[in-house]
Amino acid sequence: MLAGGFRDIYAVNPKAQGVDEIPGVAAVTGIGRPVDLAVIASPAATVAAVLEDCAAAGVKVAVVITAGFSEAGNVAGEEEIKRIARGSGIRVVGPNCAGILNTGYNLYPTLEVRPPAGHTALISQSGALGGAVLAWAEEQGLGISKFVSYGNRVDVDEVDLLAYLADDPDTVVVALYIESVRDGREFMRAVHAFTRRKPLVVIKSGRSRSGQRATLSHTGSLAGADAAYDAALRQCGAIRVDTVEEMFDLCKGFAHVPPVRGRRIAIVTNSGGPGVMAADWDEKLGIDVAEPSPALREKLASFLPAHCALRNPFDLTVEGTEDGYRRTLEAVLTEYDAALALNVNTPYLDSAALARGICDAADATGKPVVATFMAGSTVVDALPVLKARGIPNYAIGERGVTVLARMA
Amino acid sequence: MLAGGFRDIYAVNPKAQGVDEIPGVAAVTGIGRPVDLAVIASPAATVAAVLEDCAAAGVKVAVVITAGFSEAGNVAGEEEIKRIARGSGIRVVGPNCAGILNTGYNLYPTLEVRPPAGHTALISQSGALGGAVLAWAEEQGLGISKFVSYGNRVDVDEVDLLAYLADDPDTVVVALYIESVRDGREFMRAVHAFTRRKPLVVIKSGRSRSGQRATLSHTGSLAGADAAYDAALRQCGAIRVDTVEEMFDLCKGFAHVPPVRGRRIAIVTNSGGPGVMAADWDEKLGIDVAEPSPALREKLASFLPAHCALRNPFDLTVEGTEDGYRRTLEAVLTEYDAALALNVNTPYLDSAALARGICDAADATGKPVVATFMAGSTVVDALPVLKARGIPNYAIGERGVTVLARMA
User: Fold this and answer.
1) Among all residues of chain B, which has the CA nearest to that of A140?
2) Confidence label for A227 from pLDDT (cuts 50, 70 and 90)
3) Residue B217 and residue A377: Cβ atoms within 8 Å?
4) Sequence-separated (6 or more) residues with CB below 8 Å from residue B192
5) What is the tens place of the pLDDT at every residue in B340-350?
6) How far apart are the CA of B210 and the nearest CA of chain A, in angstroms?
């Protein structure tokens, strides 16, 4: 909190002990000034009394990090928190959660790693999973706007959070990890309303019997029939993914790439093998790696060397240049809905220049372009160029076309 | 070549020009001493004459990097190379290839990035794909024994290479990228003979119609019915994967982990959500995330804290310790065939200690153990421990259980 620039902080504890520059007080009511946010991490047995104190002091929101409630069999303790929240109107996040963060306000009342700022909001029923995503965000090139770990959701739940984030100007896409929902109907209504305005990427775990058994033991909540979730999420416009990696891939696409208006995908590559591998996913993904029109073929022939393939995938060969990528992408994007720009760099070529050609074409056309620069040390110069100019990079082409297909 | 410690090298070219400390000669026959290996990168029109010169000098093996043969419509040029190879007995790799390397000999007659030494051999019909894998190997934690890019295979082909690598003591597992094979029957016989001795991981691209069309344009070779490849590879004991990432994952498993003797998989985690997500893959993968026996449960209860789950996934909770991982893994591996050790680290905990506990259990039991340490900066201390002790780490648990399932 201090590192975020907040100064008006109080350490509330029975002995009124301060921490570093933060003054200590024995109760929230003792602060004597309006309090915007209470973060509660006191032992489970004390949480109810602390919440009562917050309510008496007029606190509007309390984040209860403390565990040891329904997930540990302490249903009565949790019911009491719920009762206080309902009675006082104080909004409670948690208990048994990892906290919240808001990169726009520099607000980090959580123990988790601070991610880079950006346009993806993350809502996670699992604190650990949320924490892992935050810790991984920098490396994955995903910027975060807001994070809420809502744990046992005695009060604030996925429905409230979706309604809030639909209106949040900093949030372009929401990633949601759920193991169960409180009220199926209400949840689906909230998802439907949300996805009319912004994309929603959902991981719903507990697909298999052993996963459901594990969910039950982990959160005490029953996961419900997986197929029903699958159908309902699809109907309501959410995109369900299976892994955190797919979630990163897709959120990077939605946060950075313009809408994908159709399923005709061009693959522009400098290397046959990886181009074929990306094209191979067309049937599985329901995309059309269609051949170019005669007019486009003629156009490409006017500037590409004779050895380049005037077919989709468009293979510029190992001699592909910055100019070759730029002009080819600009040309193909006149008749394709989106493009994957694929590059296998050779150790002696400047990958940054090729990345610039790709970014220039994306800017010039305003069409969705994603990149795959392979691999390792040969492409380290390209990656900062792509990042600075907002073109998502995927380690393999198959992941790039998967994102375009799911966005379409 | 020089950097690899080789000193007895000659630069063969019409003007007999040397390069740095390497003396120049006008012809291989002019060297006047036995030559072990010729690497040919002269223009396509000169390759036949250079090969004749090599043959006359008694060279045993020539790697022809030069492109511009059948893949560019120059079938006659390629036939001539084939004729010279057949007539002289010189073994030819290529043409149109990225070269070879042998980390055991420090032999790198290739322009590709040098990978770390290890026990995976890579055979690639696509030079670019091979180069990308080599450039990525360090980051992916995969060590390479041999690499052969065989391009248009006028002579040495996948069948020869599999026979050679079956006997190679440095090679534990082979990764093979093919777009087509020269002779289906002979290839399948070679695969069958190989997989009786070592595991073979295959990427066969050209699955879809657009992929097959692209393969044809790229290598001039027809890919053939994909379903037939699928069935034949399975029958012959090869493991087919779709992406380079899956190939890395599986090769890391085979290179480092003891054989997986059955399909009962234990998941030991410190975090419910990611544990559930890994367990969720059981039905898809055909593994059994079975519950522990009463005896094992009793054993676990004797040393684990009361809040830990005595079920599979075994959740040590956020309080999981080095000792907790070690003792739990040792106990569960008495009745499971393999284990995934999953850890979502919190920023203030020492991930290296937890990694040591996991490695100790793998050593003590001799059973297959793979790890997933999530994520980013919170686990940077664990990764070198796992690497040094030969436990493969997968970014997400789903990839770890997929490897165990495919090895079983």
Assistant:
1) B376
2) confident
3) no
4) B235, B236, B237
5) 999 998 887 89
6) 6
Task: For residue A283, name the pLDDT band (cuts at 50, 70, 90).
Answer: confident
The C-alpha torsion from B116 through B119 and B125 to B127, rounded to 10°, is: 0
Query: Where among A256, A279, A304 does a domain terminate?
Result: A256
Q: Which residues of B touch A218 (CB under 8 A)?
A: 272-273, 275-276, 309, 315
Q: Do B128 and A377 touch (CB under 8 A)?
A: no
B44 pLDDT exceeds 70? yes
Estimate to the nearest angstrom the gap between the alpha carbon of A136 and the chain centroid: 11
Q: DSSP letter string over B392-403?
A: -B-SSHHHHHHH
- Answer yes or no: is B1 within a domain: no
* Same-domain pairing of A385 and A306: yes
CA atoms of B51 and A184, how far apart (whole Å): 73
Q: Do A377 and B125 touch (CB under 8 A)?
A: no
Query: Given a cut of 70, is residue A304 above it in pLDDT?
Result: yes
pLDDT tens figures, B120-131: 999 999 999 999
For residues B259-264, give the mean pLDDT.
97
In 10 A of CB A141, how many CB atoms?
A: 17
What's the CA gap between B277 and B269, in Å, rounded? 11
Number of structural domains found in chain A: 3
Residues A204 and A271 occupy one common structural domain: no
B318 → closest Cβ in A128, A271, A282: A128
Is B199 found in the same domain as B88?
no
Q: Strands B144-149 and B117-124, how do they pair?
A: parallel
Instruction: Share the mean pLDDT of chain B.
Output: 93
CB nearest A72 (choices: B210, B307, B396): B307
Residues A75, A188, single domain; the answer is no
Question: Is A279's CB within 8 Å of B211's CB?
Answer: yes
Closest alpha carbon to B312 in B278, B268, B273, B270: B268
Of A72, A135, A270, the CB nearest to B376: A135
Position B351, amino acid: S
Q: Which residues of A touch B221 (CB under 8 A)?
A: none
Confidence category of residue B228, pLDDT binned at 50, 70, 90: confident
- Whole domain around residue A117: which residue ranges? 99-256
Long-range contacts of A160-167 (CB under 8 A, 24+ apart): A161/A123, A162/A123, A162/A190, A162/A191, A162/A193, A162/A194, A162/A200, A163/A190, A163/A193, A163/A194, A165/A121, A165/A123, A165/A194, A165/A198, A166/A193, A166/A194, A166/A197, A166/A198
Name the residue of chain A whose CA is nearest to B374's CA: A132
- Region of poorest pLDDT, from B134-138, B179-183, B333-337: B179-183
Nearest to A347 among B112, B279, B374 (CB): B112
CB contact under 8 A, B309 and A218: yes
Candidates A69, A133, A271, A280: best to mutate against B (most CBs of B within 10 A) is: A280
Question: In sequence order, what E strands does B219-337 have?
Answer: 239-240, 265-269, 314-315
